[in-house]
Design goal:
- By secondary structure, this protein is of the alpha/beta class.
- The chain has a single domain, classed as Peroxisomal Thiolase, Chain A, domain 1 (3-Layer(aba) Sandwich), CATH 3.40.47.
- 31% of the residues lie in helices and 18% in strands.
- Strand 5 and strand 6 form a beta hairpin.
- Helix 2 packs across helix 3 and helix 6 crosses helix 9.
- The protein starts with a helix and ends in a 5-residue tail after the last strand.
Length: 386
Amino acid sequence: MSGQAKDLRGKAAIVGMATAGIGEAHGFSAMELLGQAAIAAVRDAGLELPDVDGVFAATSSHAFPTMSVVEYLGLRPRFFDSTNVGGSSFEMHLLQATMALDAGLCDVALVCYGSNQRTAGGKLVSMSEPQWHETPYKPRHPITAYGLAASRHMAEYGTTREDLAEVALAARGWANLNPEAFARGPLTKEEVLGARMISDPLTKSDCCLVTDGAAAVVLTRADRAKDHHEAPVYVMGVGAANYHRSIVEMPDLTTTAAVDSGNRAFEMAGARREDMDVVMLYDAFTINTLLFLEDLGFCPKGEGGRFVQDGRIAPGGELAVNTNGGGLSCVHPGMYGLFLIAEAVTQLRGAGGERQIADATMALCHGNGGTLSSQCTAILSTEAAL
């Protein structure tokens, strides 16, 4: 890794964070929800909207998201970017915001997202997948694509539906400790395995929620981070990788580009896997969690199913994974990546309530875009890990 990339370690910090409208937010548009989260995050940082001079946004409902955000909030940024690589966009925005802040292109960066997917009548179906490959076979994307990956993992490594069910059960266990989570209440392995089949081998319980929701974070340079209300959460390392768009062009259905994005993030951060107190993984489907645990180096390739057995990633387990309840039980409004960051900030601030991980100092956030396509890994920390 170049010296320039290493020099970004700890150069920026998240000083404001907020969410809004998680679950069902009747009567609000996607932009209104985004605005609620953005204003609350700016206030959380002890700032005012005119202080924001950098804007980073991606949405599924606006062709020109930063222009829409700027107009709606009345901002006049010096720097803006609307990179859209699906659900991993916001981990990428952390890197872009850090670079812009370090270069002096802006002083206060806002990263934001909002969606009313649930109350607007949305379903877990994506028409953005390239259709020239798969159209004759009538896929139901993105579920069909993830079903292919799950089936291949089962065939190659002996992973079972019971292993996938462990992921859903762990997510619900964390959600039951999170009053903001949309899906709470008892859930048994029998219920997961007996749920309606959507795309073999994935049942309804293997699929993420369809909710409303918005999130926002505010970043500044590290040298001014302590001037804000909350203890800063530092951006230690970010790495990205992307090798395909369509699932049929994925080189290996059982290995994602997270192998490279993770290594790049860990190298920039100068951190090890065992340093991570909280691991936030984009769990659009239960197979994602297994793939990312493997590809990010928390267990060997093919061992993800066995790794999660016996509640290992559930509350009280050895590795705290998706402590908010994840996309499976907390929130998933189309693009989930910013909510990973929001929960990591919550944990590193020590504000997790019943689900708080004691003495958490480092957290990993891994975003996934498209159909296991764009992968972006971010490592955050408290001042103690600088």
